[in-house]
Specification:
The protein is α+β, with helices and mostly antiparallel strands. The chain contains two helices and eight strands; from the N terminus they run αββββββαββ. The chain has one domain. A hairpin with a 5-residue loop joins strand 4 and strand 5.
């Protein structure tokens, strides 16, 4: 009679095995053709587990949950999740997969804008993202910034 394989052992098995998410408890299969062979995060909640020293090796001794804390836009426009280990603090970049929760990805990407580490009001003009000049000045009630040059 065979015994069930503990979750900690499941994570050290071959990288193509499915796993149970350490954060939300969802069963996560390794998808075919979803952008990665080394599934390292849950496509629903985007949490990961500190398993690798190098991508796919499953040799880390930490094994703690890794919280998705940011999005990084790689050269060429591909997005990657930045995970922070809840135990040791290590940061890791992980490619997003085709079946990742798009709403959760956008929430993480917008977090830096929604919760900046400094006050926004009265900081001067808001610049046009296309590289043009100022668009609005929040301290003037949204009025266009006036030129001071003669």
């Amino acid at each position: 009679m065979s015994r069930p394989v503990p979750i900690s052992v499941q994570h050290s098995m071959a990288r193509e095995d499915s796993f149970i998410c350490i954060h939300c408890g969802r069963a996560v299969p390794i998808p075919e053709g979803k952008g990665t062979r080394n599934r390292n995060h849950c496509p629903a909640c985007l949490w990961s587990r500190h398993l690798d020293i190098t991508p796919g090796d499953r040799r880390s001794g930490c094994k703690a949950p890794m919280e998705p804390v940011a999005i990084w836009c790689r050269p060429g426009g591909e997005w990657a999740l930045i995970h922070r280990c809840t135990a040791c603090g290590m940061l890791k970049a992980n490619r997003i997969a085709g079946d990742d929760n798009e709403f959760a990805l956008l929430q993480i990407a917008a977090m830096a804008l929604a919760q900046p580490p400094f006050p926004i009001a009265g900081r001067g003009p808001v610049l046009d993202p296309s590289g043009g000049g100022p668009v609005l000045n929040p301290s003037r009630g949204g009025q266009p910034e006036r030129s001071t040059s003669s």
